[in-house]
Known about the structure:
The protein has helices at residues 11-22, 55-62, 82-103, 139-157, 180-189, 206-219, 235-246, 257-274, 282-288, 297-303, 310-323, and strands spanning 2-6, 26-31, 46-49, 67-70, 107-111, 162-167, 169-171, 195-197, 200-205, 225-228, 231-234, 253-255. By secondary structure, it is an alpha/beta fold. The protein has a seven-stranded parallel sheet with strand order 3-2-1-4-5-6-10, sandwiched between helices. A three-stranded mixed sheet has the order 7-9-11. The radius of gyration is 19 Å and the shape is globular.
Amino acid sequence: MKAFVTGATGFIGASIVRELLKDGYEVRVLARPGSDRRNLDGLEVEIFEGDLSDQASLTRGLAGCGQLFHAAADYRLWTKTPASMYDANVGGTTRILAAALEAGVGKVVYTSSVGTLGNPGDGTPGTESTPVDFGQMVGDYKKSKFLAERAAEEFIAKGLPLVIVNPSTPVGPMDIKPTPTGKIIVDFLNGKMPAYLDTGLNLIDVETCARGHLLAAEKGRIGEKYILGNENLTLARIFTLLSGITGLKAPKVRLPYYPILAAAYLNEAISAVTGKEPLIPLAGVQMAKKFMYFDPSKAVAELGLPLTPIKGSLERAVDWFRSHGYAR
């Protein structure tokens, strides 16, 4: 079978491609002209040059493909051009799914985010059915992904055989950008993380996350959502694990929330004038107010999602960042 993958040059997408190749799939990937393709080096894939802004070209790219994995997204905590993020995440999703419906693709897996789900925030893990609404979305990334997920649901209603997966926070190798979470690891390795906010995240190995996408294509029920997550950890615990892996000291100073929030608002105001990324992204601070804990038991029970120890994933991330010049 041939699979079409968007976002294949990125963190999760590149791992999806590798898992597909392991299983003997033919893989066609969407890549923008001039894009950074290091994550595809050495892989036997067919590269289809195109862009999520051109629906007609997407229909051509999907021709002959039995499955679509739509993992492309503009993932940033701050952007000076919010409209471009909404066009990529909402408009791009609408166009690729319309193309998939037109091309008669047999199964679609759409990569959403746990950020679109309800989250009690008090340490109680959220699930696929935890109540949520648009007003709970913090920042343009979450808002755009929430709207994109609603668009995906509209295509399910039109007859597109689509499954939604909601990854938590993937960690591991090949985080070339890096993602905001990868940047936390890089800053820790470079001694730029002297203090932290009291928050928590659900981490999952990036390769396990990618495998979850294939399991969703194989076993996922059309119209259902599946959280692809693993361990719920405080940020302090993550730093303790990184300290044990590297021998570097974990930060001991826990920052108060509201003074940092005020600083983030100031940073954001300065960035609105300068156009430069803020040192303290407001959305990141606002997200940190809640413990982003989630329950992956539905994916474990229905898909057979494996749960691999996160310490090993952090070890592989550290090794990759160091060997590729991100950290000393």
